Amino acid sequence: MSIFGEKIRAKREEMRLSQEQLAGMCGLSRRSIISYETTDKRPHASTVRALAKALNVTVRYLERDEITDPQAGIEQEPFISEAREMFGSRGAEEMTRLLEQNEALFAGGTLTESQKDMFYEAITRAYFANKQKAREKFGKKKPEETDAQ
Fold first, then answer.
1. pLDDT digits over 49-65, tens only?
2. How far apart are CA 7 and CA 61, in angstroms?
3. For the purposes of burial, counting CB atoms within 10 Å of the CB of 57, is it exposed (0-12), middle (13-18) or buried (19 or more)?
4. Which residue in 12, 15, 49 sits closest to 34, CA to CA?
5. CB proximity list for 83: less than 8 A, separation 6 or greater
6. For residue 1, what pLDDT is reported?
7. Which end of the chain offers a freer environment for a tag, N or C, measured as fewer CB atoms within 10 Å?
8. 88 and 29 in contact (C-beta within 8 Å)?
9. Residue 144's pLDDT is what?
10. Higher-confidence residue: 126 or 23?
């Protein structure tokens, strides 16, 4: 069994959910839950998000074997979700990397949660603004835009 599977089973049992109940909460089959818990099989990203939501843990916790805190990165989740909504899975991956790379700035510091949120918000807004500019500059032109030129 993988660490991913161990995390799924441990949290499910802690919440006193059956495999069938967890599967229902995630729109999966019981067989899928059994597979995740007993093999090295890893689900698609959207299924990991559904499992994280149902188990009240972060995606980061489920995806990274070395992370032992089920709430690791919880303050970043809203920003990553917003990037996913605006720019798809690639945007979410880029935002995750961007926020994780800047986490080192907090090492040994005494920032409040509010200050961290303000920092994450500023990074997110800068990322979104630059992504939008790139879309406008390098994105595909609409047919009427190319005809007018």
1. 999 999 999 998 998 89
2. 9
3. buried
4. 12
5. 91, 92, 94, 95, 124, 127, 128
6. 52
7. C
8. no
9. 58
10. 23
Q: What domains can you pick out in the chain, each with its CATH number?
A: 3-63 (1.10.260.40), 77-139 (no CATH)
How far apart CA 85 and CA 45 sit, in angstroms, is 14
Place of tokens 């995606």: 59
pLDDT, tens digit, for every residue of 75-114?
888 899 899 898 888 888 899 888 888 877 777 677 787 8
**Token representation of residue 54:** 């149902």
Q: How many CB atoms lie within 10 A of CB 65?
A: 12
The answer to whether 116 and 73 are in contact (CB under 8 A) is no
Half-sphere exposure of 74 (CA within 13 A, CB side): 9
Kindly state the tokens that stand for 37: 């818990």
CA distances from 77 to 54, 118, 135 (A): 15, 14, 24
Choose among 61, 58, 65: nearest CA to 79.
58
